[in-house]
Write a structure and sequence with these properties.
Shape: globular
Number of helices: 16
Structural class: alpha/beta
Number of strands: 11
Largest sheet: 6 strands, parallel
Length: about 350
């Protein structure tokens, strides 16, 4: 039997679902007359739509998990381009290894978790995320590109938001796939925060940058991230959070209320909150902690909050698609918090 080649595995690219093509409003409304997770999802969709209809509310989207490799990239890109989200907080893998990676012209491929020899995949330099495959050699190109971006910057501490803006600038000039969240956010002036930024391909690039420039290099400042997002919360006042998964992005966003209070700023708790998660509340983990629990910490109001215990590729297109087709976002004012934060940066001593 002939030994398999990389091309035998990397055949069919993952296709990103488009919420504009499917009017899910009647389906989601029908789910509201059901029970269990169906009714929870319908309420979550209504709450997200309420965030968009509330003219004084800014929307923060948080992302955790392998979402874009799984086909949800265009959902988020459409939310950004249609002014349905004002800031994003994410893991590094989603923004760099998955979105920026595809912006460079690469793809994720349909795979399988069954009947696969992962040792063979390793020999072929193919990485697996459950039932998707990625070309490791292409990921190394992504790593090297982030190193070159780091090399081009003035040596000083940066927030992840500042660095991702440079990634967006790079894609605007050199990107091969314009359907990118990083690019859309750069163009729409929507800030993207990645609090654990070194935990992704950009981390490898920055290690390379600092290794070659030991005495004079750029660095990442996670406290600056926290300060910038807190500035957004203080400026916005009323906020809604649409959370996919949990982890660092969830806590980082919720904690801005507490941070603002410690700074002496009177800032309300997050007015609306929706979370989609598969984590189990019984283990005490952050990803599964309920939004009602967050209220005990002074982070989230309890009037308009909803947990949806569902896997993201099932729930997110329905919730986002419902809001897109309901149309409350039309005519919504763009906050352009990237420009606001750049002005604050200039004012800083």
């Amino acid at each position: 039997m002939a030994k398999k080649k990389k091309s035998d595995y990397l055949k069919e690219a993952v296709r990103h679902i488009e919420i504009s093509k499917y009017n899910v409003v009647p389906l989601v409304d029908a789910m509201d007359d059901m029970a269990f997770s169906a009714r929870d999802l319908a309420r979550a969709a209504r709450i997200y739509n309420m965030m968009l209809a509330d003219k004084g509310c800014s929307v923060i989207l948080t992302l955790a998990g392998s979402l874009f490799s799984a086909g949800l990239k265009k959902v988020v890109a459409d939310l950004v381009r249609n002014n349905m989200v004002d800031a994003i907080v994410s893991t590094g893998a989603i923004i760099v290894d998955q979105d920026f990676f595809e912006g460079l012209g690469f793809s994720h491929y349909k795979g399988t978790p069954h009947g696969i020899d992962d040792n063979e995949l390793r020999e072929l330099r193919i990485d697996r995320i459950y039932d998707t495959f990625i070309d490791e050699d292409q990921l190394r190109v992504c790593d090297e590109t982030t190193r070159r971006i780091a090399d081009s910057l003035e040596p000083r501490p940066y927030s992840s938001r500042e660095f991702i803006e440079e990634m967006g600038r790079y894609l605007s000039k050199h990107g091969k796939n314009k359907d990118s969240v990083v690019l859309a956010a750069y163009e729409m002036r929507v800030p993207i925060f990645v609090p654990a930024f070194s935990d992704c391909s950009a981390g490898f690039g920055m290690v390379g940058h600092q290794w070659k420039n030991p005495g004079r290099h750029m660095s990442m400042d996670s406290a600056k991230d926290f300060l910038e997002l807190t500035r957004v919360k203080v400026e916005a006042k009323d906020t809604g959070i649409f959370m996919i998964g949990g982890g660092v992005p969830k806590n980082f966003t919720q904690d801005t209320v507490v941070a603002a209070d410690m700074l002496g700023e009177e800032t309300p708790m997050h007015k609306y909150a929706v979370q989609v998660t598969v984590a189990d509340v019984r283990d005490g983990a952050l990803s599964s902690s309920t939004l009602k629990e967050a209220s005990s910490w002074g982070k989230v109001e309890t009037a308009q909050e909803q947990m949806v215990f569902s896997e993201a590729t099932l729930a997110m297109p329905l919730i986002a698609g419902y809001a897109w087709h309901k149309g409350a976002w039309k005519g919504r004012k763009a906050r352009k918090y990237s420009d606001f934060l750049n002005k604050e940066l200039v004012k800083a001593p």
